[in-house]
Design brief:
Elements (H helix, E strand, L loop, with lengths): L9 E2 L7 E2 L14 H5 L4 H4 L3 H16 L3 H22 L4 H14 L1
Amino acid sequence: MHGDLHHDNVFSTEQRSYLAIDPKGVLGEPCYEVGAFLRNPLPALLEKENPRALMQSRVDMVVDHLGFDRQRVIGWGFSQAVLSAIWCDEDGVSCADMAVVVAGILKDLL
């Protein structure tokens, strides 16, 4: 899997429809891949009028188009948001609070 597939790592190019950059090359459940997509881009996601509805829409799209299990999509999104908060805190970056808010929204979607 890519391992860090989100808005800042996907580009539209003339040679290809889309190009994903900065792969982490991890092995795992394909459903894991959508976690970064659900919570990014921050802080723009949380500045939307209704971030919960936006994340619900993203979950619906993933489930409908990829056939992934809804609970697993949300669960992986939640887990990755918590992990993101931990990484932010460890790195002394001010994104931990935003990641916790995202985790709370995803928890509510369960």
